[in-house]
Automatic annotation (TrEMBL):
Residues 22-222 form the Metallo-beta-lactamase domain. This is MBL fold metallo-hydrolase. Residues 35-55 are annotated as: Disordered. One of its GO terms (molecular function) is hydrolase activity.
């Protein structure tokens, strides 16, 4: 996508710089080592820290928060950063919990970012299901985000959010053309629930990208936590075996040198 820079900070956390905007996704900035409880007997240990501290990221214009209820998408230092962000966009349930300047969206709702000397950015919430069928009451609501602005040439920038492959997420390519996708991967699993997955597997990511046909595929949310059951190698194998040269569209972003805490 023209004039867009994406910096992968770790896990799902990225900094998107485009047309004068600085947009942060799912802020996770705690140091490694701690185990976090996710509810219903599930937990995960953070194995690696972020590549940048919040002060190294610098000021941001908006935070896109797919959900607030899991620490691998919003941890303690990430919560501190929210207080400094001019705009935070998340689920409606998350907006009620967080309060302040937080905008809450359901799937297919839209909101607009506006700023001086910059193009308006329309943010559309996209569907997510963070686990198997009927899991929503347990895992809570999640959304993804599709960003579009006037200078885009080939389609939206889509951040999938934490989701499995299900009919709701298959609607995205039916409703919009995607140029670049930030894929939340990891094939999240917990011992308590056996083989059930709570985020995209490598195989499902390939199937989704065959539907979406983006020009650029950027993996995130695949490293740094003990509940991720698939990492980079599994994703590379799946995309290398995909037809139509889909693997050539896969771009791994180098992490900056990790910060010292």
């Amino acid at each position: 996508m023209k004039d867009v820079r994406v910096t992968h900070i770790g896990g799902p956390t990225t900094l998107i710089e485009a047309s004068g905007w600085r947009i942060l996704t799912d802020p996770t900035f705690d140091p490694p080592g701690r185990r976090y409880q996710f509810g219903w007997g599930t937990s995960s240990r953070k194995r690696t820290g972020p590549a940048l501290r919040p002060d190294e990221v610098g000021p941001v214009d908006a935070v896109l928060l797919s959900h607030d209820q899991h620490a691998d998408n919003l941890d303690d230092r990430g919560r501190e950063l929210l207080a400094e962000a001019p705009v935070v966009i998340t689920t409606r349930a998350g907006a009620r919990r967080l309060g302040g300047r937080v905008r809450g969206l359901r799937a297919w709702d839209e909101t607009v970012l506006e700023g001086a000397d910059r193009p308006r950015v329309t943010v559309s919430a996209t569907p997510c299901r963070h686990g198997p069928a009927l899991s929503r009451p347990v895992v809570g609501p999640v959304i993804g985000f599709a960003l579009r602005w006037a200078s885009q040439e080939h389609g939206v920038l889509w951040i999938t959010g934490d989701t499995v492959l299900y009919p709701g997420v298959r609607e995205v390519p039916q409703r919009m053309t995607v140029d670049t996708v930030l894929l939340h991967l990891g094939a999240v699993r917990f011992p308590l629930t056996g083989g059930l997955h709570y985020s995209l597997t490598a195989t499902d990511a390939v199937e989704l990208c065959r539907l979406v046909r983006p020009r650029t595929i950027i993996p995130v949310h695949y490293e740094g936590w003990s509940h991720f059951s698939q990492g980079r190698q599994a994703v590379e194998r799946a995309f290398a075996a995909a037809p139509d040269g889909l693997g050539e569209r896969l771009h791994w972003l180098p992490l900056p040198t990790p910060s010292t805490y």
